[in-house]
Amino acid sequence: NLASAENITLAINYALDASRKPGWNLRDRGNLAVYYLIKGETKHSLNLYQTVLNDCPAQFIILEYLETLTFIKKIFPDLNGLQVIYDLLQNHLPNPKR
């Protein structure tokens, strides 16, 4: 729906603006990645998550991302790319659940 697409675009723009300010953090990057995923830009979302993972974040950050994606899956069960990103994050935990 167009209103939802507009809202996601606004959220992305807001997050991009916030990224230029002090205090931008890994939670913010995760939110931005989710917005891109919902918008259908799976590759961009995957790249953002991979960038975070390359920085070796604390385990709780990855767990927060997984929790967010679990919630998103309830809303958008057929979201393209969600499972790939979920698996990528899951595999960066010390003992990945399979």
Plain-language structure description:
The protein is an all-alpha fold. Helices cover 71% and strands 0% of the residues. The protein contains 5 helices and no strands. The mean pLDDT is 87.
Primary descriptors:
single chain, 98 residues, mainly alpha, 5 helices, 71% helix
Indicate the topology.
Elements: H1 2-18, H2 26-39, H3 42-54, H4 59-75, H5 82-90
Helix pairs in contact: 1-2, 2-3, 2-4, 3-5, 4-5
Summed up:
With 98 residues, this protein is an all-alpha fold.
Order of helices and strands: HHHHH
- Oligomerization state: single chain
Helical proportion, percent range = over 70%
The N- to C-terminal Cα distance equals 35 Å
Strand content: under 5%
Number of helices in the DSSP assignment: 5
Mean of all residue-level pLDDT scores: 87
Dominant shape: globular
- By secondary-structure content and strand pairing, the structural class works out as mainly alpha
Number of strands: 0
Main sheet: strands, sense, barrel? none
- List unreliable stretches of 5+ residues: none
Q: Return Rg in Å.
A: 13 Å
